[in-house]
């Protein structure tokens, strides 16, 4: 099989040396790691198809990897699989201005895609802090969310066409980007969010949006989570330009100040911090200021209108992940509940975690409009699974989801039944068997 793979992609793109493979075999968090039999780096869809035919014929399992920025172990080997890296599939097509769409290879980074679209005064609907490393294929495979879901939806909502290779090497391609197409099952929508278990995404056609250069960013000090949530209906009603609403707390602020050298945004600590961004064709500062000026529970606020000031305010939110990582390897849980129940989740998290692990440190931040929190627990020792179990059961008790935007990966497979019924899991397993009867792709990811 190795000789066959070398013949398909070139000897230099089949990595066998342990030291060379190492960077592919551990995920961003450092929690998930395993050994790959080899790392294969195809450069075209045809090469991906040939690789999968060889692996399926040999009975070899395949793990699919994009930018390796995942947080749930879905893109690293468990032991002995062929690791299929899509980083070389980095071709960007010319932007189709008539339809406001673009075709991008799976290995294109989000930052490169954004730059490509902005050069013709358009933009990408999804944005997230890992933009320099995260790739289009991974974003689609995990149905990534990020900071603009409030306005544009998740990654699945951006996909208007998709090319993917099935485990047997057959190529599924539907790339016309039709705005209306009523000819049966939405296969692209099904593959988006399937975490590489159904097919290997090699290219996508994406919807683009008008680039809105006029921006205003405000950091609000709120007296509680309840006040931050209560502010949302008025913001959505009065601010059609609202594109982000991000929530964090004093514990996270202390870490980003410690590791990022950031100044205190306000003289004293507050119950919750809400970061808002508006984007429009004309300056939205006055509308933003008016919308928040008399908000109940607002204690203090600062507004940035210039690019440097906006970046400085965003740094308080976007450097959370790296600052938490600088403290150690956390248990990272990405969960969501109905937005009205977000205050209840926040209130219950600390006693729930400390009831299992009294020494643990909890750092929480997230996307308030979607009821989506990133729960980070440091200093858990050997109690990773116990902490995970306690938090995910709490989320389930509030009618929430154990995975909002990071995917299930390997990390949460054991808790899938908390968010999906037995009937749903059986239906998903039936779909998996139909697409990948030999179980070649990403075994142990998403489904038990």
Q: Can you tell me the CATH class of the largest domain? A: Alpha Beta
CATH topology of the largest domain: Uridine Diphospho-n-acetylenolpyruvylglucosamine Reductase, domain 3
Number of strands: 16
Query: How many structural domains?
Result: 4
| Binned strand content | 15-25%
Write down the Rg: 22 Å
Under the CATH scheme, the architecture of the largest domain is 2-Layer Sandwich
Strand order, largest beta sheet: 13-10-12-11-15-16-14
Tell me the distance between the termini. 28 Å
Report the total helices. 15
Q: Percent of residues in helical segments?
A: 25-40%
Low-confidence parts, pLDDT < 50 over ≥5 residues? none
Structural class: alpha+beta
Properties at a glance:
single chain, 448 residues, alpha+beta, Uridine Diphospho-n-acetylenolpyruvylglucosamine Reductase, domain 2, Uridine Diphospho-n-acetylenolpyruvylglucosamine Reductase, domain 3, Alpha-Beta Plaits, 4 domains, 7-stranded antiparallel sheet, 5-stranded antiparallel sheet, 16 strands, globular
């Amino acid at each position: 099989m190795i000789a066959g793979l070398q013949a398909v992609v070139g000897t230099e793109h089949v990595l066998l040396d342990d030291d060379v493979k190492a960077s592919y075999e551990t995920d961003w968090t450092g929690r998930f790691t395993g050994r790959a039999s080899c790392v294969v780096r195809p450069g075209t869809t045809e090469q991906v198809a040939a690789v999968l035919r060889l692996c399926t014929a040999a009975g070899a399992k395949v793990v699919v990897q994009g930018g390796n920025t995942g947080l749930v172990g879905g893109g690293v080997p468990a032991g002995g699989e062929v690791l299929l890296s899509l980083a070389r599939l980095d071709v960007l097509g010319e932007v189709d201005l008539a339809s406001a769409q673009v075709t991008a290879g799976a290995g294109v980074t989000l930052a490169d895609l954004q730059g490509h679209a902005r050069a013709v005064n358009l933009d990408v609907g999804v944005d997230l802090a890992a933009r320099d490393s995260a790739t289009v294929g991974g974003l689609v495979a995990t149905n990534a969310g990020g900071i603009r879901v409030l306005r544009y939806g998740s990654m699945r909502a951006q996909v208007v066409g998709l090319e993917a290779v099935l485990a047997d090497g057959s190529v599924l391609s539907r790339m016309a980007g039709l705005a209306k197409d009523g000819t049966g099952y939405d296969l692209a929508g099904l593959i988006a969010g399937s975490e590489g278990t159904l097919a290997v995404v090699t290219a996508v056609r994406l919807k683009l949006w008008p680039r809105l250069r006029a921006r205003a960013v405000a950091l609000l000090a709120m007296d509680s989570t309840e006040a931050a949530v209560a502010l949302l209906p008025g913001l959505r009603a009065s601010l059609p330009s609202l594109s982000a609403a991000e929530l964090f707390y004093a514990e996270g602020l202390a870490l980003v100040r410690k590791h990022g050298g950031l100044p205190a945004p306000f003289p004293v600590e507050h119950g919750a911090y809400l970061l808002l961004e508006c984007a429009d064709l004309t300056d939205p500062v006055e509308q933003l200021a008016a919308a928040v000026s008399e908000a109940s529970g607002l204690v203090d606020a600062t507004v940035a209108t210039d690019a440097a000031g906006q970046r400085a305010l965003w740094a308080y939110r976007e450097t959370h992940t790296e600052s938490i990582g600088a403290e150690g390897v956390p248990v990272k849980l990405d969960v969501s509940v109905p937005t009205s129940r977000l205050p209840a989740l926040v209130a219950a998290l600390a006693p729930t975690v400390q009831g299992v692990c009294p020494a643990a440190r909890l750092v929480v931040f997230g996307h308030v409009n979607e009821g989506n929190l990133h729960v980070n627990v440091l200093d858990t020792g050997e109690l990773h699974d116990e902490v995970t179990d306690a938090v995910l059961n709490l989320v389930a008790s509030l009618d929430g989801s154990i995975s909002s935007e990071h995917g299930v990966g390997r990390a949460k497979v054991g808790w899938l039944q908390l968010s999906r019924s037995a009937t749903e899991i059986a239906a998903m397993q039936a779909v998996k068997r139909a697409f990948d009867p030999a179980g070649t792709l990403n075994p142990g990811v998403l489904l038990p």
